[in-house]
Amino acid sequence: MDSHTFIWAVLDRKKLSAKVSRLLEDATNRVFISSVSFWELSLKHRLGKLDLIGVSPEELPIIAQESGFEFLPLIPSEAAGYHLLKADWHRDPFDRMLIWQAITHDLTLLSKDNTISQYRSVGLKQLW
């Protein structure tokens, strides 16, 4: 899931669609949160661009784990292969890395971002 979806899932559930809420609540689904998202949220919090509603960035991994989410680390080969994502519809490097990780691991990316949906043409599976 992308960073916004994660924040909504753990801090503001009413912003999620009913479909996404059902998917997250279904224990048969494995739900991953990338270390890239934790980095992005920490940076945006530090810059004053994100209010975490009384939660510190350091608490987010604990909250994710308690919510049943699995961690998806950024491994060196993914970081080094990032340049292989030739499509350039999205300028945000964090979102582009999430897209790349989803494609690389054959995962479905939960995101409401319409720009991300353009990456379906290069192999991204996106849901929202």
Name the descriptors.
6 helices, 128 residues, mainly alpha
Number of extended strands: 4
Structural class comes to: mainly alpha
**Major sheet:** 2 strands, parallel
Mean pLDDT across all amino acids: 93
Neighbour order of strands in the largest sheet: 1-2
Question: What is the beta-strand fraction?
Answer: 5-15%
Ends apart, CA distance between termini = 10 Å
Describe the structure.
The protein is mainly alpha-helical. Helices cover 43% and strands 9% of the residues. A two-stranded parallel ribbon has the order 1-2. Strands 3-4 form a two-stranded parallel ribbon. The termini are close together.
Briefly summarize what is shown.
The chain is mainly alpha-helical. It has helices at 3-11, 18-25, 35-46, 60-66, 76-81, 93-105, and strands spanning 32-34, 70-72, 108-110, 125-127. The strands form 2 sheets. Strands 1-2 form a two-stranded parallel sheet.
Record the SSE blueprint.
Elements: H1 3-11, H2 18-25, E1 32-34, H3 35-46, H4 60-66, E2 70-72, H5 76-81, H6 93-105, E3 108-110, E4 125-127
Parallel strand pairs: 1-2, 3-4
